[in-house]
Specification:
265 residues; alpha/beta; Rossmann fold; 6-stranded mixed beta sheet; 29% helix; binds adenosine-5'-diphosphate; binds magnesium ion
Length: 265
């Protein structure tokens, strides 16, 4: 077991506010973490630090054994997979699904003049099949359904066989069917022996895939609690995270939460 991400006393200050406020956190290579918390809690900021796209104001961050600020981040970025809606917005609508996934091997969005190796094309086709996209390789990204687009984003993020996979709200805005399809694929992926460490951001406990092992609850930049899912995702911790009593139940590895009492009494 080795740590792929280590934050010590990390603060990110913007203006007069700490949007990340003294977080210490270790992610090991055999763990799959969920970051859960309300809008504006600092979840995306934490993922951007893990993605080496943002540096802390104070504190230290080690990603894949390298200290941010003391290493060439371009050396470690190829080993990190990242999927987010912000990144997806930059995918050209007329790019084919195969190319969206294939270009990840070259860290570019949109095919230009790169020469691709047959081995990369074969891997891209295999990844498309894994994420149930093999019938769509020649379709252009702009014509896909929301669910298919999300699966393409995840497929692109895993194309390079990363050592750390970061997913920012991968199931946000999906309908029930598309959400469940993606969650099942994420579960299959999370349970495969060769799977990298994963960190997934969400604000719904219903969107935690089976097979995830740990959770960090964040509120206003602070870690309310962190640790193994079962012992950490409690009504007390959820209450502190969201600001009122929340009942939570587990059912066969999935989670359901609701307010325990009228909120506007
Ligand atoms: N560059 C910035 N300058 C000022 N505030 C920012 C900046 N980036 C993010 N924030 C604020 O920091 C907080 C945390 O943002 P974010 O990490 O995106 O939260 P989350 O993903 O949990 O919704 C939000 O209140 C957001 O408005
Ligand atoms: Mg966010």
């Amino acid at each position: 077991m080795t740590s792929v991400l280590e934050m010590n006393d990390v603060v990110v200050r913007r203006g007069a506010r700490n949007i990340v406020d003294n977080i210490s956190w270790t992610v090991n290579d055999d763990e799959r973490w969920v970051i859960l918390g309300p809008n504006g809690a600092g979840k995306t900021t934490l993922l951007q630090i893990a993605d080496t796209m943002m540096f802390p104001t104070t504190g230290t961050v080690d990603v894949l054994g390298e200290r941010l600020g003391k290493t060439d981040v371009f050396q470690i970025r190829p080993f990190i997979g990242f999927a987010s809606t912000a990144l997806a917005r930059r995918i050209p609508a007329d790019e084919t699904v195969l190319n969206v996934v294939l270009t990840a091997a070259y860290s570019v969005l949109g095919r230009w003049n790169e020469q691709y190796e047959p081995i990369d094309e074969r891997r891209a086709m295999r990844v498309l099949a894994e994420w149930k996209l093999d019938g769509l390789a020649d379709r252009v990204f702009g014509t896909l359904s929301d669910g298919e687009r999300k699966r393409v984003q995840v497929a692109r993020a895993v194309m390079t066989d990363p050592e750390l996979l970061l997913l920012d709200e991968p199931t946000a805005s999906l309908d029930l069917g598309a959400r469940e399809e993606l969650l099942q694929l994420l579960t299959g992926y999370a349970q495969a022996p060769s799977t990298p460490a994963m960190i997934m951001v969400t604000h719904h406990v219903e969107e935690i895939p089976v097979g995830f092992t740990h959770v960090m609850l964040v509120r206003e930049g602070r870690a309310v609690a962190q640790g193994p899912l079962r012992e950490t995702l409690t009504r007390e911790n959820l209450a502190e995270t969201f600001g009122f009593p929340i009942a939570v139940v587990e059912h066969r590895g999935r989670w359901v939460a609701r307010a325990e009492a009228p909120i506007f009494a």
